[in-house]
Task: structure prediction
Amino acid sequence: MKGLLIAAPSSGSGKTVITLSLLRALKRSGHAVGSLKIGPDYIDPGFHSVASGAACLNIDGWAMRPSTQAGQIACIAEDVDLIIVEGVMGLFDGAADGTGSSADLAADLNLPIILIVDVSGQSASAAAVVTGFKEFRDDIKIAGVIFNRVGSARHEQMLRRAMENVSIPILGCLPRDETLALDSRHLGLVQASELGDIETQIDAAANLISKIIDLDTLISLSEPPQMAVLAPTTPVIPPLGQRIAIASDTAFSFCYPHILNGWQEGGATISIFSPLADEAPSLDCDAVYLPGGYPELHAAKITSNRNFMAGLNEAAKCNATIYGECGGFMVLGDSLTDRDGNTHAMAGLLPIETSFASPKLHLGYRKLRLLADGVLGRKGTEYRGHEFHYSTQTAKSDQFLFAAHDALDEELGSFGCRRDNIMGSYIHLIDCAD
Result:
């Protein structure tokens, strides 16, 4: 099994759409191809899976232990002969402390890099960008470059001429084309499940890519990832119970597969229910997990879905553990105020209120320490996670779940809320710290 890493000088260069196009084109040409997404992104992996027909998992150099990273690679490698890894932000950009970049992971895995360069508004300068990225670090290998958003045949000629003295092959020059675009929303890309014509879009993009990029040449640049096979010493997150009911639909979809796999490997059984379809957690569950997502877009429906709300409250009365992350955390509170200022009653299981009335971005990696013993571990257990939301917690409890620091180890105060067996926070847990 070999691999390549798709990266770019900055976000917005087109690496996600090009990655999707390559996955679909490689699949159609008969390759067993899989993918990984660097960083905490929930949405891009869904698009990867549509494009390749195979699972896509996250890999994160800042938030995951080496053993967890090795497990992600091993899981993807089981059924594929080529792994495409999509980078995050710019090639050298990572957490606030400077670690966890795509370049760091490429160096750790010895993965060749295909650099996607948006050449809008530049010609010869693009060669300087490529040269600078090649020489910035000597522990990575930029194996090829794809120029994106090329304006014309003359523009392509100028780019190729400028690259004549740069010892990196140009794998293709992609034109400005609406085919290579996807819709966006306030929190990244729209989920793949929300686009009825996603297959058509990816097929069209793959058709364009296949005409311009020689896939055999691309594959010839791939190399086997190099990482020691490490057995995790502790689970990512302990199972919440023996029978865990998990909310899953377009309002509750931000769930890392490696966490669910870890629960199953730990002996837990999992059942799925849809709050939007007014389904309740399984009657025999001893734990309920409400992942993140977009409950604010469906707040009125969630409020009126009495079977879901009654089932959630019944699980609480039966002393089931109930854990919510981000959107799931908001649903466990007393109320949720949407962007239009409408306030919707929520489950009322935690003494919090959340609001989008004055949107404010909360974003970044988080170091977390448990403040009390519980299903997530003993007091003092440390985790790493990620925060990304626009809502604000307008009412708080003194029973917090975590003490938090950012990637620079600056103290952020207490996060989340806990009431007996019911708990949650805005943080998406990714891995335990050690």
